[in-house]
Amino acid sequence: MTTERVRCLIIGSGPAGYTAAIYTGRANLSPVLYEGLQPGGQLTITTEVENFPGYPEGIGGTELMDDLRKQAERFGVDIRTGIATKADLSQAPYKITIDDEKIIEADTVIISTGATAKYLGLEDEKKYAGMGVSACATCDGFFYRKKTVAVVGGGDTACEEAIYLAGLASKVYLIVRKPFLRASQIMQDRVMSNPKIEVLFEHNTVGLFGENGVEGAHVVKRMGEADEERYDIAIDGFFLAIGHKPNSDIFKEYLDTDEVGYILTEGATPRTKVPGVFAAGDVADPHYRQAITAAASGCKAAIEAERYLSENNL
Ligand code: NDP
User: Mean pLDDT throughout 111-137?
Assistant: First the structure.
């Protein structure tokens, strides 16, 4: 296995990773950034980003990430394709294995690996993966033009995906397990006023069926305390939007995480309990999970890395 020594290793290419790259690049730390499983991160699978400051008309998620990448390249950041598959943070320099074939020894590590979409855990989700089951409306919505789809979840993501799909499909069911939506009021209003969206409150999905791909879902409607009604809905596509799991598994042996897996940092800083190792963006943020907050924490992590290197004469 080959080994390479770097001063600053950034893992992940969402807003946190790229912002850390821009700052560490400008500070001449010669950062190396590995893009990870989903280059550009979660924003590349969203549609319009309307709340990133500086874009009065909004900007496409992929476009925003392309711009951040170009900005990082301008400062000489070495951006590479690859996934961190193993980590040894027991002593400095820290050893991160890339694609199980190369070890990067890094004086500082910025973990910005983000979070991944969650599934309900039904066998049928696996059975119909790529055959009607998706966790990304913007990636797969195109295949459901003039068809009927269901979106599971009651948060902002679910509402956003339902609205996006309503622009393509002829009908969208929004399957919500509680009697209310958790999403922000503006998203709720948009969902409730969209004639193509039917919200199924207090419903759970227990299975999917179909010969060659999804043709329907078995749902259960809760009726009062003890009663429930089981029935089927005919759908061609089943979209999950029930939140995310932080991508922290390979670091858990060395870092503290909460029960969900979010990396715990010192107060409002991106410092982890290992000196020189920082966590930025969604992997360490159970609360805000916004592109702008991820970018901000990437900036903080970069400044911390710079200080750490200079304080330790590295
Ligand atoms: P959230 O955690 O906010 O919502 C998850 C939703 O999925 C909840 O309604 C939850 O139900 C439901 N859910 C979770 N597990 C299950 C399950 N097993 N079965 C059925 N339903 C389930 O996640 P989001 O991805 O929607 O949002 C994450 C963050 O990103 C939030 O802070 C959100 O505001 C933000 N965001 C902002 C956007 C914007 O401003 N444009 C766009 C998208 C996201 P329950 O309510 O019962 O827990």
Answer: 93
